[in-house]
Amino acid sequence: MKTLRHGLLLLLVCAAAPAALGWGDEGHRAIGAMADHLLAGTAAARHVHDLLGDESLSTASVWADAVKGRTNLTEEMLRFKADNPNHAVSHYTDIPFEEPRYRDDSIGAANVDVVHAIPACFLILQGKPEAQTIFTNVSPRVALRLLAHFIGDIHQPLHVGSGYLDKTKFVDPNGYAGHYESDLGANQLLFGGTNKLHFYWDITVVQTNMSLARAQTPLQYADYLLARPAPDWKTSGPLLNWDRVWADESLALSAKAHDVAVLDEDDSRLDWRTNQPRPQWHIKDLSPAYLLWSQKTAEEQMTKAGYRLAAALQALWPNTK
Q1: What is the domain partition of the chain in residue ranges?
Q2: pLDDT (tens digit, 9 = 90+) per residue, 9-41?
């Protein structure tokens, strides 16, 4: 059985395409579907319906990726893009994985990154858009869609932690005096030829888990996750600080996700924006142990994201007696 599972994992890794969209549509839809189920019959569910109508959280969760495209954009999407030209930066942050926690003054942090975007969405949904400076002219409906997506993103370890390398050695650029380049959340780490480590975590491991769960749709996978014992997902403290707790969890996991052997630096590719070399690094193929750990970790992180999305919305719109 172990041989069969390892074979399936390796087959899916090798079949992966080169582009990526955080957890992928399937992962985000499963997280949203979990929240839809957990919120059924609550005041929060009524508020969600008031904002989204017949659009579920599962459907809404992929809006933030769809708006990054160039085709099939609605007028609402076009207005959002025009008013928020840097919206793509809000899906991630690039904290060095050696750091113990997210810091606003760390290399890789930005005041519009996912750690700042989530509380901005909370404030818009609380009716306080003037209290945030991340988004311009964002309605509560769009803020809810963004929130459903960003809570998924912040639970993907490589959407929080990044590697910085001096040649083939990982370094923490905070205080480092030598030259270094970012792997952009492992988007520049390649294995098996052209497979990106970031894509593996975004897409491939989710598809692997769905296959092993015999789930053909995100809704079926959400049911599977909800039927399993829940991980330790509860978050204490003020709602506007929850995202920092989640970021620190993902940052710690990103260090393990970067536990790979870097073989060489490839400077042959030019950055299309600057026409300067854009380093990529080839890493040793992922071991069976790494594949199984990533499978377990991705499942736990997605499950936490589903429970936490529901809990955040219930904190925003609690039941009244």
Answers
A1: 2-316
A2: 444 444 433 344 568 899 999 999 999 999 999
